[in-house]
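quick one, three chains, predict together pls
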Amino acid sequence: MLAASLANNSSLKWASAIGIFVLLCLCALLFMLHLSVGSKSLGFDTVFNALFNFDPLQFDHVIISQLRVPRAIIAVMVGSSLAVAGAIMQGVTRNPLASPSILGMLSGASFAIVISLSLFGISSPIYTPWIAAIGALFAVVIVFLICLSTSKGINSLNLTLSGAMVSAFLAAITSLFSLLDEENYDQVRVWLTGSLAGNNMEDITLILPWMCGALFISILYCQKITVLAMGDQVAHGLGIKTTRLKFELLAVVVTLTACSVAIAGPMGFVGLVVPHIVRLIVGSDYRWIIPSSALIGAIFLLAVDIAARTIIRPEEIATGVITAMIGAPLFVYLIKMKSAQ
Amino acid sequence: MKNINTTPDSSSRLKASKLTAAYGDKVIVDNLNLSIPSKKITALIGPNGCGKSTLLKSLARVLPPTDGSIILDGKNILSHKTQAVARKLGFLPQGPVAPEGLTVKELVSQGRFPHQSLFRQWTSADEQAVLDAMSVAKVDVFSELYVDQLSGGQRQRCWIAMVLAQQTEIVLLDEPTTFLDLKIQVELMDLLATLTHEMGRTLVVVLHELNLATAYADYLVMMKDGEVLHAGDPVTIFTQKTLKQVFDLDADVIIDGNTGHCLCVPHYRYANKKQKRLKKQAC
Amino acid sequence: MHTSLLTVLHKEYIFRTSNQGIALRLSTPAFVISFLLALLLVVIIFFSITTGSYDLSPNQAWQALIGNAENQTHQDLIWLFRLPRVCAAMLVGCMMALSGAALQNITRNHLADPSLLGISQGAALAVVASIIIFPLMTASWRAVLALLGAISVTVIIQLLTKNSATNKSIRFILFGIGISAFLSSLTTALLTYGDIYRVSEALAWLAGSLDSSNWPDVMILLITCIVLFPSLLLVSRYMSVLRFGDEVAISLGSPIATARLSLICISVALAAIATAIVGPVGFIGLIAPHAARRLASSGVVMHLIISALFGALLLAGADLIGRTSFAPLQIPAGLLTQIIGVPFFIFLLLKRKSKQS
């Protein structure tokens, strides 16, 4: 597959470039759409004007810039981050079921954030990404340790089951702390279901650089990920230091996940669903999977969020709930496909 | 190809009549007729995939037939109540797995199930049957040990003890000797032979090892592609020609002077060449 | 390896009538353990009645129980709140434990539990839907809906795992987890849709809390137990041969299709109705049968009885701890069982050695 793609270099490159361009356009379109829907529908022209001819006296423009733009930006960033994190995890573990939610990272991150809020009262976005990162790392290490201790070692089913269990446990403890701490619970209740609301631009700008940096590094590493996805021995043979690479990629995944959780709470299943959609369209070459995941992840989350806000207008369903509704059946389907192997 | 109509044995209690058996869409056995002679050991042999296990499972009513029927004591086996059948016919599948933490005595006691009811769960008859079965199968010394702790051969004897405790006249066994040491295989077959000839049971065994089959079977059934090609006395039907026909095997059949059993000696081509070469060198 | 707690009393007691119309075998250790568990239950009942945000002395509690209460507060405290609550806890614990035991037997999977297979979540979804959409429904009708929800999930699982080889594996549990996640998300979505009061009611119930247990609830649970527990005992015989797999079970003369169907119906009904009354409570169906096996090896009937007693103890204990440890705050028992249950599940996962899937 790799050899073939290297051989058909120029024609494939053209096709892929056009593909990326199409995705970029789609993303921009959905971005605009996202800005225009909500409890009050606004036309595209209003949106356009708000973005490029901002008039602080126009109420609609204020809504757009203060409420909707941050939310849309979050959707794009969180969507791409989680999707890329999931893609990397699936490539490195060679397990189609791997994703930040399934391996417990999301629960770990939210657990850490809630604990630090309850016990130390930390809620500033300067610290939350770091705390989330510690939590996510802690969770994924426990999952791997559990897997290693089973007699079968690390195989995809064991990993998935341990991850689900660790997630359930951390979620339960998180609930416990939320209950014990009534006042802070109100703050986090909506956030705990995965919600894109409730953040302003200042908070976002603190976290954004990290996400962009991590995404950039992922794209830099995408060729190495392709090789790693073919197997450790193959990677060794091609001269790649697999252990070091895995640690570096782990750092990237943790950063992406932690930042996403710090902003939007645990948004489950995005990291599972999007890479699969991407692989259907793009194939197995991670040089295309990573950038496409970023774009399709953004598109996915924008679309889901639009749905979340319009299905039972003027109420909104938490976005994390809809990602679960789409993701869980896919999860079941993937398990069934694994049975066939 | 037409099925050989085996000599109908008037004392046969168990018959397959126009049996067609399949797993899903895949038909394994088609329009097969066979009468199992009573109080004898019947051995089913044949190449892999010939349908001998399938036939055995159909006889045991574990696999329902797609067409045709299994006749037990003159009636369709499926028309009997399953508990009543279990009192007449016992079946040991290939490679049975016992749940964890079971002692030998507990395993053997399970064989009494068809004779028990909600309130009659451990009569003195049950107790005696279990003790007898364990002693015949020579696993009474292991009575309180856990089944997992035993060796392969010992475990297999425990399973046989379980089927014995069921106290059925007809016993069906699917490859009871596979994966066991030769010594254990012979011991097990001796046990089965005792059951048949000294205790008057009817045995049907699927065997993989040809020489074991010819040594112990009173009635040999050779199967291929879901049909019975030959059935009868081993000495009569176990010949070079039939071996070639059923197994596609080039072999000689020699009769052991002492016991009168047939033995199959395959033409080991490379080994024979090597022998000739060594002989040539010696001369 | 699998040593029972009381190796000293390694005897069994055989009871036979003169014509052996009745011939039963009772494992003495199992009998002793059951007795001890029952005693512990009485202790828990005692503590449940006397402790709480308003402590009662043993004498005061006893007086209120025999109808000679000191004052109305004591009377209400015991008869309106604490006694029905602990009764509900015990009954639900029993039901979930029995459901789990039956489920583990049918699926031949030691990791099975009604909440892990999505059965509880199916019942929960049905109940939440009924709370939001039909707020005037009574508890008994909710129980019926819960049953329908649970049955639907069971059918889906059966369809997904048609190949019986998957039953024994981790895959089976993962199916359940996926289905549970899906159903939970649907439930949460419903909560967003509803009216705030109904949502609060649904949320409280969803936490798996025995908070608002009253006597009518206890009656429903009791009736269910009275009907289903003996039914389970009637088919318990088949449970012991089903363990060996289909082929051996058939050859031993057990009508496996009927046996399986009965067992699954009873198991699902137990889990669904328990969930309908107090909300989804997880892991009791997983832990209790394992604990029962560890405490005393025995025949199927005693195993069921010990599982039921242990389950009752577990939930009543969890409820007591949840109610009193962080008073006046109440931690739902369902949360506590999850916090205990997951490490236990992981422990079982680590122990799986020879019986690989």
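The radius of gyration of chain A is 20 Å.
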